[in-house]
Structures are given as structure tokens and as C-alpha cells.
Amino acid sequence: MPKKTEHIVLDNLSQLRALKQPLTTRTYKAIPHHTVYEKVMDQARKEGYEHLRDTLEVTHGGERAFLNMQFQTDDPTLPFSVAVRSTYDRSASLGIATGASVFICSNLMISGSDVTIMRAHKGSVQEDLEDMIERAFNGGKQSYKDKIAWRENLMGTQLTERQGRYLLAMAQIESSLFNRTAYNTAVEHWIDAPYTEFQGDRSLWGLYNAMTFGAHKVRPSDKMDVHKQLVSFTENILVEDNKLVIA
To answer: Which residues lie below 8 Å from residue 93, measured CB to CB, with a gap of 6+?
Structure first.
């Protein structure tokens, strides 16, 4: 069992199943992390999606989890993703979001306008889980198409290295969850990306992926929210005549 504050990336579903199971009480309706995962996979099969890979992360002794499941699309570089936030310690509600992610590094593209379903662990949440996941899949299909267009726009907006550094510093100031470790990781990615696909990319798309790569350092229970914050931040960046416009 991981230590209480240790951030663990699990290797497979078997390890997720091996975590201590939550207990249902009068005020808390328990749903194991692996049950949410398995229900997502069931819906994906119904929808005809082919599973590519997962990122399964836990902290707090397995009581908090962030699950990112990727599925094949017509664009091999941009899979369809289902992200799940699941907690046993009542620190956050059950969250399910759907959208796009970058295949090479699992960077998510989830914004506030995307389909994000939140439910407290109360009432009929156990019985409603399958319906929640189905609704997330249905809404996520349009969200995915929107993100394809958004990516093209970001690719067409060029920055200098100095502008990128400035924007990363602003992202840390404006995002309550983009911590110092995430910021430092993003700067390293921006200067010398660890993936060939992003080396030398000085577009806004390259900067966005530097930020979301840094977001891998954020605690699992905060990842869904930090990705929304970073998408919102990126959407408000304006470059005119090679100059940043600060609103």
C-alpha cells in the first residue's frame, strides 16, 4: 500500500483492483476506482472505441485516483479520452470528463465548456453511474471535434522562447493549482522538449503541451481542474504582429 501522501502511477488494472476498497455508510455511497474504470470500458466497447492505453494514478494510500483512458480515433496523434476523478476520502466529488488528449504524452485537452459530470457520493450515485458515463461519452464526441479545430488554431500562432517563458510564469500566477514543480517541468519542456514531436515547436500548441506536461506533476485529485484552468488560460492568449496582447 502506498504511503499516505505518495503519488503512485499504477501499471495496470490489477493494481487498481488490489487497492483497499471503500465502505458505504449512511452518508457516503462507495464506488471503487476500478468499478468506474470498468464501466467506462464497457461503454467504450458499446460505442465501438478501440482501447489504446491508460494512465492510472493514486495518492493518499489509494483513496484518491485520477484515471485517463485513451481510445483510438481517425487521428492517431489525438485520441479520444475519458478522464475520471475518484475519491474515497470525500475530498472531491466523482468527476467524469471527456475530450481529446495528445497520444505521445497523454496531455489532456479538457476545458470548462467540455462535458464534465460531477456527482457527490450520495443518494443514487451507484445506480446512476452507467448513465453518467453514457452522457459523458455522448457529449464528448462534439467536444472532441471542437478540440481538433482548436489545435489547428494554436499551431498557427507563433511565439518566441521569451514570450513562452513569460506566459508560463503568468500561468503559475493565475492558476491556483499549477504549482512550482509543474511550472519548472513546463519550462524544461518549452526549452528542450523530451519528445521529438515538440522539439523546437514555438507555437502556442507547443506551449500548451509544455503546460499540460507540467500538469502531470499536479496531484491526481486536482488534475481535472488544473487542465480546465490551463485551457482557459490558453484560450485568452492573443498574439498580434508577433506581439503578446495583454488584456
So the answer is: 85, 87, 118, 119, 120, 121
Q: Tell me the per-residue pLDDT of 98-127, one tens digit each, with 9 for 90 and over.
A: 888 765 555 666 654 555 677 888 888 888
Nearest CA to 227 out of 209, 244, 205, 239 is that of: 209
Alpha helix (H) residue ranges in 24-124 = 33-47
- Domain boundary assignment for the chain: 8-151, 155-245
Task: Tell me if 202 sits within 8 A of 160, measured CB to CB.
Answer: yes
User: Cα angle at 238 between 233 and 242, to 5 degrees?
Assistant: 135
Q: Which of 78, 75, 116 is nearest to 209 (CA)?
A: 78
- DSSP states of 51-66: EEEEEEEEEGGGTEEE
Under the banding of pLDDT at 50, 70 and 90, the label for residue 246 is: low
Q: Tell me: the pLDDT tens digits for 32-87?
A: 999 999 999 999 999 999 999 999 999 899 999 999 999 999 988 889 999 898 98
Joined grid coordinates for residue 76 = 492517431
Backbone angles phi, psi at 245, to 5 degrees: -105, 115
Task: Estimate to the nearest angstrom the gap between the alpha carbon of 206 and the chain centroid.
Answer: 17
CB 88 within 8 A of CB 63: yes
Closest by alpha carbon to 204, among 192, 212, 215? 212
Cα distance between residue 163 and residue 48, in whole Å: 42
Q: Which amino acid is at 21?
A: Q
242: amino acid identity, one letter: N
Residues in the chain: 247
